[in-house]
Amino acid sequence: xxxxxxxxxxxxxxxxxxxxxxxxxxxxxxxxxxxxxxxxxxxxxxxxxxxxxxxxxxxxxxxxxxxxxxxxxxxxxxxxxxxxxxxxxxxxxxxxxxxxxxxxxxxxxxxxxxxxxxxxxxxxxxxxxxxxxxxxxxxxxxxxxxxxxxxxxxxxxxxxxxxxxxxxxxxxxxxxxxxxxxxxxxxxxxxxxxxxxxxxxxxxxxxxxxxxxxxxxxxxxxxxxxxxxxxxxxxxxxxxxxxxxxxxxxxxxxxxxxxxxxxxxxxxxxxxxxxxxxxxxxxxxxxxxxxxxxxxxxxxxxxxxxxxxxxxxxxxxxxxx
Length: 321
Hints:
By secondary structure, this protein is α+β, with helices and mostly antiparallel strands. The chain is 43% helix and 10% strand. It contains 13 helices and seven strands. Strands 1-2-7-3-4-5-6 form a seven-stranded antiparallel sheet. Helix 4 (135-144) packs antiparallel against helix 7 (186-200) and helix 6 (168-181) packs antiparallel against helix 7. The longest helix is centred in the middle third of the chain and has 15 residues, at 149-163. The relative contact order is 0.12.
């Protein structure tokens, strides 16, 4: 019962996975259709294979799965020649974090990195939190830009109370002038109006966004005025729960990383990206560990998620610095 790293060695999963890519997988999550899985060749001990769970051409037992290559022309070494395989032999590749896989990711990082292990030893594992995907969370993140979390949350509540809900239609009805009268800056008011229009006109489909690979989702988000790299990273990490997001532009992450590593100066985004490379492909867990330490050093806790009190249900949601 653990998380393990695996390196892609062959071309059978192109274009989604290429030789040299690394994935993490767990043996505690049952694979489902569409999941990428890792398993040992049934006739070659110690020879690991990476495939995707697919629908079988004919019924198979409930304890079995049918696996295929993403690049079927590269090899026939999948269920076309191996037949159905036991579900219990599969390690499921993690493409979204949940509470169990987050804990496993933290323990894997702690086992590999002495600095991160020190966080766990001193403060324990951080609580896994996630924001609800959707419009309210994007509004909150825009309001959080360049202000404290507490200020962003307070502004969100004022906007909600004035609009009576955080929906695109309600924001447009409220209007830019009313947003500014609530204390929202001219710039952010414009961002919220444009975001509302983009969603209503279909230029940004938040449901589809949740199904896209991380790079494509990031591109769609940053195409919107007012959603830069930090806001996109925050949404990808906390709402869509992609495992390898590391917001190098986050000041608390910069300061916290410097503290954890005992650096004499705060790393800049380029340095932070370089520092984070050994933590791939689960850098989101590393970021959460560092934020955990950052807050603990200052005697702080994550503020309550204001969106949970209004438009969306709460599921252990907390915010990060």
